[in-house]
Amino acid sequence: MEKSEKIERYYAEEHPFKPHIAILREIALKLNLEETYKWNFPTYMVNGKNVLAICKFNQHCGIWFFNGVFLSDSEKVLENAQEGKTQAMRHWKFKATDEINIKKVSAYMTEAIGNEQKGIKLAPKKKAPVTVVLPKELKEVFRQDKNFKKAFTTLSDYQQREYGEYIATAKQEKTKRSRLEKIIPMIMAGKGLNDKYK
Predict the structure, then answer these.
(1) CA distances in angstroms from 134 to 65, 137, 138, 157, 168, listed in the order given
(2) Where is the YdhG-like domain (predicted)?
(3) pLDDT digit string (tens) for 83-130?
């Protein structure tokens, strides 16, 4: 199904918030936003960049502002879309059509468009480097076999940490040795400990 068909179906579908989202769509289109369909929602863009999406749920409908964290929010209506997970996205919820003030909604959308055109973005947070603690058993194999050490260092930090923990968590020396024997060919083949489950 074409994106345009999905959009039309989304707005035509019988839903308690059908009139509400029709109003929001009309405002967005008057602001010359490009209309597309992403993540199961009509999404509105400027210069190919996501600005907002219009969404409907069981208890409310609303607007997702992809970089809403930068909106001035003079009406104090924006909520973090997913507290603790979402950094930039903000959500404006509506439960009744009379809550949709066309002038105010238009002002928020216009500000969001302006921010996108200025390139205002939230810089991604740099992940803290992964600390890989290597057990003495692995270090001993490195000392004996330089090729094994080289193969291990080509693995991602995450894979290295998994292998290190796998050996370190074995309580008995016998278990550590058997685990080491098991993982050496995997490491030499460039595989992670749990790759077969991915």
Answers:
(1) 44, 8, 6, 11, 8
(2) 24-113
(3) 777 789 999 999 999 999 999 999 999 999 999 999 988 876 666 666
